[in-house]
Design a protein that fits this description.
The protein is an alpha+beta fold and 238 residues long. The protein has two domains: 110 residues, Ribosomal Protein L22, Chain A (Alpha-Beta Complex), CATH 3.90.470.20; 119 residues, no CATH class. It has a five-stranded antiparallel sheet. It has a three-stranded antiparallel sheet with strand order 1-5-4. Strands 2-3 form a two-stranded antiparallel sheet. Helix 2 runs antiparallel to helix 3. The radius of gyration is 17 Å and the shape is globular. It starts with a helix and ends with a strand.
Length: 238
């Protein structure tokens, strides 16, 4: 798992950190040594079931590392609905999978929102594609080629991309404008970026994501395949 954590840090470090002020941190849940964190976080964790408690604490540990790496003031990372609520000067997004928690942090004056997702060791089965993708996205010529040998891997990458986009778009729209992953719609943007399933599009296209009901609210999604899974992140469109 150490290699997985290292790959996560390297991948996002190469693509969206440094001058942009973004930092990713990853924590293996099994490596947590005691509850740690702030007292407010420990009180929240104590109200959760054991498995969720471990994920919560690992996510907060990753968030504090990401905040420190971004040079931002640290403090308790609590809840705002289902989203993490970091100190006012920061934006934070957290994801858990395969015994690892990752957090992406950046300054609030540069990023009005962030989204990150990691999927390690699998994801939704092809039979669940209708829960992730709309009819047009599943149809011939859509995002998912159900007849391809790597169709299952495509779906995992698309699921991760939509999760990251959903997290980033959620704070920007009303709840009824983004009821679920199917409401996240991808559109291409000219450029040499990867498409949402981690492959290459004709002409080399970047991808933007927006709620179907609010096409004017967009984020840019990047997907990277790792040896053990998929890492996705979504940032505001400048």
């Amino acid at each position: 798992m150490e290699d997985v954590v290292g790959r996560l840090i390297a991948e996002i470090g190469q693509n969206s950190s440094g001058a942009d002020g973004l930092r990713l941190a990853a924590v293996r849940i099994a490596d947590l040594d005691g509850p740690g964190g702030y007292e407010e976080e420990r009180r929240l964790a104590a109200t959760l079931p054991a498995r969720r408690r471990a994920e919560f604490l690992a996510g907060r540990a990753a968030a504090h590392r990401a905040l420190a790496g971004a040079g931002l003031d640290d403090g308790p990372v609590l809840f705002e609905g289902r989203r993490p609520r970091p100190p006012a000067a920061a934006r934070v997004s957290i994801s858990h999978s395969g015994g690892v928690a990752v957090a992406l942090a950046g300054p609030a004056d540069r990023y009005r929102t962030l989204g990150v997702d990691v999927e390690l060791g699998g994801g939704p089965p092809l039979a669940a594609a209708h829960l992730v993708l709309g009819p047009a996205e599943r149809a011939g010529g859509g995002l998912l080629d159900t007849g391809a040998p790597d169709a299952a891997e495509q779906l995992v990458a698309l699921f991760s991309a939509k999760e990251a986009a959903f997290k980033a778009l959620g704070p920007l729209v009303a709840p009824d404008e983004l009821p679920g992953l199917r409401a996240v719609v991808f559109t291409p943007e000219p450029g040499p970026r990867a498409r949402p399933d981690g492959g290459r599009c004709a002409g080399g296209s970047a991808w933007l994501a927006a709620p179907e009901a609010r096409p004017d609210v967009r984020v840019r999604v990047t997907v990277r395949r790792l040896a053990a899974g998929v890492l996705s992140w979504a940032l505001p469109v400048d």
